[in-house]
Amino acid sequence: MSASSSVPKTQSETETSSNTRLGVCLMLLGMMMFALNDTLGKWMLATYSVGQVMLIRSLAALLVLMPFLMQSGAKTLVQVEKPRLQVLRVLFSTLEVFLFYIAVSYLPLADVMTYWLAAPIYVAAISPFLLGETVGWRRWTAIFIGFVGVIIALEPSSASFSIPALISIIGSMAFGFMMLLGRMLRGTPDKTLVFWQIMGAGVVSLVLSPMDWKPVSLENLLLLGLLGVVSMSAHMLINRALKLADASAVAPLQYTLLFWAVVFGWIAFGDVPRASMLIGAVFIVASGLFIFFREQQLKRQGKL
């Protein structure tokens, strides 16, 4: 054993290590809860329309968020940076969540999740043109590999290349644009961004839900409300994880979402993952991880 390895850790190092472990646990729990939320949403969509599910989900999420908003005050909601970009982000977030629930009504949960996990690849591809960021040949190679993964998962020559699959691709691109706009609105508090996301989805669902409204039993009302509670709890867990630990330690754990999607999809719906989906997912996850760690490296070097 070297002399350096026997030096006891300082209190600061011990706290950092403890915070990192807690951050990792919270991130893993948050990802599992997101997958659980999506599974429950898919289950409810067998009975109710997307608009009705989204309306009750939005109301429940708003109730959970309200105490936190009351602490920060109303000014943080209306006095925001770059209002036009805020509106654009709400439009993309609303489109993304509606397309996700439409897609998941027809496709296995793991398939839809695979397409959504490609969103960081779209962000990396678009950022040079909208944010002026420089993307080197390594990341462009990773972006290309990620797109290959999407094509493999789509199986364009088979029956699985369908309208719901195209809806998934459009939805994941909308999610990518939402992420990109989030990077352009770094000065906006997370609570404010989440509030307007909920409001955007709520307003659209308020318009759409009366077109196909079905009576809701108390049991199903509680389950629909649970959608909003679980979703908001997952958001809070992930935000807390990112504050406790370095992004390089917890952000890659977002890909555990695919594992839970496979598990919950099999348990709840008997979905068996397609071989092409799994192969495509490997390409997409590998590409996304490389892009993330490369960006972290460039940030440390002051080049990004």
Describe the structure.
The protein is mainly α. It contains 13 helices and no strands. The chain has helices at residues 11-44, 50-72, 75-78, 83-106, 109-116, 119-130, 137-154, 163-184, 190-208, 218-244, 247-250, 256-269, 275-300. Residues 1-5 have low confidence and may be disordered. The radius of gyration is 20 Å and the shape is globular.
Summarize the structure.
By secondary structure, the protein is an all-alpha fold. It is 77% helix and 0% strand. The protein has 13 helices and no strands.
User: How many H/I helices?
Assistant: 13
| Proportion of residues in helical segments | over 70%
Count the E strands. Answer: 0
- The mean pLDDT is 86
Order of helices and strands: HHHHHHHHHHHHH
- The shape, in one word, is globular
Q: Gyration radius, to the nearest Å?
A: 20 Å
Output the structural class: mainly alpha
Distance between the termini: 38 Å
Biggest sheet, in brief?
none
- Detail the poorly predicted runs: 1-5
How much strand? under 5%
Jot down its keywords:
304 residues, mainly alpha, 0% strand, 77% helix, 13 helices, disordered N terminus
Write the layout of secondary structure elements.
Elements: H1 11-44, H2 50-72, H3 75-78, H4 83-106, H5 109-116, H6 119-130, H7 137-154, H8 163-184, H9 190-208, H10 218-244, H11 247-250, H12 256-269, H13 275-300
Helix pairs in contact: 1-10, 1-12, 2-9, 2-10, 4-8, 4-9, 5-12, 5-13, 6-7, 6-8, 7-13
